[in-house]
Amino acid sequence: MSEYVEDVAPADAGPVPVLAVVGRPNVGKSTLVNRILGRREAVVEDVPGVTRDRVPYDAQWNGRRFTVVDTGGWEHDAKGLAAQVAAQAETAINAADAVLFVVDATVGATDTDEAVVRVLRRAGKPVVLVANKVDDAKTETDAATLWSLGLGEPYPVSALHGRGSGDLLDAVLAALPETPEETYDDTGGPRRVALLGRPNVGKSSLLNQLAGEDRVVVDAVAGTTRDPVDELIELGDQTWRFVDTAGIRRRAHQSSGTDYYATLRTQSALDRAEVAVVLIDASETLSEQDTRILTMVVESGRALVIAYNKWDLLDEERRFYLEREIERDLVQVQWAPRVNISARTGRHMDRLVPALQTALDSWDSRVPTGRLNAFLGELVAAHPHPVRGGKQPRILFATQADTRPPRFVLFASGFLEAGYRRFVERRLREEFGFLGSPIEISVKVREKRGRR
After folding, report:
1. For residues 363, 365, 369 and 375, what is the CA-based torsion angle, rounded to 10 degrees?
2. By Cβ atoms counted within 10 A, which residue in 163, 168, 338, 345 is the most buried?
3. pLDDT digits (tens, 9 = 90+) for 178-229
4. Is it the case that residue 376 has pLDDT exceeding 90?
5. From start to end of 266-424, where are the E strands?
6. What is the pLDDT of residue 222?
7. Sheet with 154-156, side-by-side order of all strands
8. 160 contacts 154 by C-beta, under 8 angstroms
């Protein structure tokens, strides 16, 4: 049974078959994945080695659902980072129900392709052979030479232009086990957690530590992760969906190429999440990137937990100065739970789930209207709005309009200054908690009768 399942599938829909896309570097695997999906999801750039982890995507063809898993380029006798990438590809093969083996038809079968064939034969999974980069009828003869690999008929395809993709997908469905007709259900499912932070802060190491296996590639080189990587993990008698994301180097409009698209996918992963864990390197001073990422989470309206990673590297002096930095630089997110962890050693991993649950409970919480107005009545009586221009606006009535995050609407007799709004928010947190959740407050001015 595959470890990949579709998040939107109803509980009684049965297992979703998994298709792994493998091949050596730069043969067009990610481009083909995007063609199968019908949208640009996988990061693509005209250099080898862009994809490194195994990244699952939900797909469907002719009403049948399946999961397609993009993998990094497989290289024979690889060392270092390339060896980890190859190991992830082999894991994807073993976990899949069928394999899409992509070969560059313009180059032909190479020694690396032959090595991949040996791996596929050992796995014993159904294989669909793809002769990619067949952009016209002239190059179809190049595809025919791939019969020599002994994997059956090569399907000539142009992943870039879509040529031959329909016949290929028909062959894929024939190789995959049966699956129910496509259905949708947006309710239920594991709580979704996005791991965010700047490059090399330890997001992938944290995911591997939580999963108890080398789920994603980890390397000392910053920027190893390019695509968001999902993993279902059992923690605290509950299933969570953790998403490892690419490190955000700079603002998206200042990035280019791989970094640009990786940043967009990180934002997309945050939009789909319910709570974000922002990792900060405790051994270094807080950077502008850290504060910008925290602001991005708050503006997205997601629950927030701040994890100070690499705590095992700190001495007493650094811990003292870190507390001063937090008081100075993170004053806007003092409401976020903090956990001090070490993704490398597993230190204080047991504190992460309670912090996540606290933040999500606050994110979902609702204050009864009667209790809210009783509290605000006492607050306004004790601390009225300052008089401006001879007028003193008052809060007349309030209600909580929504949750996820909590949104409050204040009906007032006049404009409320930003400083007074922040004061109201601070007192709301003191009274009702909301630990780990942003709060949105809007004001509606109720004009006097007879005035438009």
Report:
1. -80
2. 168
3. 754 444 444 457 999 999 998 889 888 898 899 887 665 544 444 444 445 7
4. yes
5. 275-281, 303-309, 338-340, 395-402, 407-412
6. 42
7. 55-61, 64-70, 18-22, 98-104, 127-132, 154-156
8. no
* Structure tokens, 197: 């932070």
Query: Can you tell me the distance from the alpha carbon of 209 to that of 277, in angstroms, rounded to the nearest whole number?
Result: 15
Contact 195, 207 (CB under 8 A): yes
* pLDDT > 70 in the chain, percent: 81
Which comes out higher in pLDDT, residue 137 or 31?
31
d(CA 292, CA 387): 35
Helix axes 369-382, 418-432, angle to 10 degrees: 120
To which residue do tokens 């947190």 refer?
429
- Pairing status of strand 98-104 against strand 18-22: parallel
Measured CA to CA, the distance from residue 79 to residue 188 in angstroms comes to: 42
- Compute how many other C-beta atoms are within 10 angstroms of the C-beta atom of residue 151: 18
Distance separating alpha carbons of residues 222 and 42, to the nearest angstrom: 20
> Across-strand partners of 229?
244
Token pair of 172 as six digits: 């894929």
Contact by Cβ (8 Å): 209, 277: no
The percent of the chain in helix, strand and coil, each rounded to the nearest 5, is 40, 20, 40
In a 3-state reduction of DSSP, which class is residue 238?
strand
CA atoms of 57 and 38, how far apart (whole Å): 11
Cα gap 155→132, rounded to integer Å? 8
Q: In terms of Cα–Cα distance, which of 28, 225, 212, 26 is closest to 131?
A: 28
Calpha distance 227→209 (Å, rounded): 19
Segment 351-374 shows an average pLDDT of 95
> Are 280 and 228 within 8 A, CB to CB?
no
**Do residues 279 and 197 lie in contact, with contact meaning Cβ atoms separated by under 8 Å?**
yes
- Phi and psi, residue 342, nearest 5°: -135, 105
How does residue 51 score in pLDDT terms, banded at 50, 70 and 90? very low
Cα-based distances in Å from 347 to 10, 282, 309, 317, 452: 36, 14, 9, 20, 61
Burial state string for 315-334 with b = 16 or more CB within 10 A and e = fewer than 16: eeeeeeebeeebeebbeebe
